[in-house]
Amino acid sequence: MILAGLLAAVALSDSLKIQSAKVDITPPEPLPMGGYTARGARLFEPGGDHLYARAKVISGRKQRIAIVSCEMLTIPGSLYEAVSKRIPKDTFLFLSATHTHSAPDSQMLNDRMTFSIPGIASFKERWLDWYARRIALAVVNAEKQQGVEVDNATCLQYQEPFNRGRRQGAVPDQTATTVMLNPKNSGQAGSDLFFSYAAHATLYGPERMQLSGDWPGEVARRLDCPVLVGAIGDVSPHVDGRTSEEMIHSLVAELIENKVTNRQLVIQFAGANVRALRRTIKLNVIMAHPNMGKFYHAPQPFAESIVRQFAPPAAKITALRIGKLAIIGVPGEPTSHLGRAIKAYGLSIGFRSVIVVSHVNGWMGYILGSADYDQGGYEATLSFYGRDEGAEVVKAADEALRELAGQRA
Description:
The protein is α/β, with parallel strands linked by helices. It is about 25% helix and about 30% strand. Strands 1, 2, 3, 4, 5, 7, 8, 9 and 11 form a nine-stranded mixed β-sheet that branches. Strands 12-13-14-16 form a four-stranded mixed β-sheet. A two-stranded antiparallel ribbon has the order 6-10.
């Protein structure tokens, strides 16, 4: 295994307060599974793992931010809105999904999914309310905790070759990131703020009918922190093993146990530089990919009507700054090429680390560059705004980064 490391000890000029909580979001009754249409409408079976929402609340000088990672497939916009209404109004919400394919189908929580498609669950208001209350409880419970005062953090980044491109031309970002908190009071134990890596949570296939957090769930269990999945629109996990369980064990062991650093870099942060904002993505006309009907063996006019009803009419980039660390949340699944473009821009304007996260505060489908869109295939058929939408997402992300960095547009 070849690793390249970056260890960034981040000194804060004034303390941050970090509060933590997790809440079980395992449904109390069997529900349809999501992720693989091959399962049809089958309900999950007993004997699986519990699923969780994990929250870290960061209080800086001017803002309070809740980073929440949920072991579920996607974050529909209606779920984000419902959770937002149930937490304090002055808490900025960064709500992400680990994209596990062994969880109940989150389309049940999408209030635009009011029609029936084989293998995909339709909207159930009861379950939207249930999930929103449970996820919001993670934030509320965190804010009730005493928390810890943090003087500095360690941003550890290293290369792990356990993902691969699943489309022609895909080059995955193989950077694993752990942000570790160092309490101001030496008598308090340190903890991890979050862990991030880019790979679909698909080590379990459609044959599994029990619940599982897949590899992100196991990382979260071991580190007891949110897991933020990177730009995964064309990225799958790549690890050896005879069974899914063996592959998950091997991947997690490599990701969190075998960290090797080749150089250290000390970065001075200003504690007041904790900020969060959202920027609107310009959406082009909602349209089905020209090959969507053919790909799914359906009339193209039918595909067009479904996409117009299903695709969200609005979407936003969610951006966080913690000193010289920037986190860009995308409401969907951007390809590795687009993630790399966002990251490169952030580094060019002064950030020391830029992390692009999929499935944040909404889901607008797969997000591809124009050439990738023209290439077609599965991901392109779930891209709902035409061939230029990837450029619009990058543009909105760059605008958010520029504002976080204090530069005018």
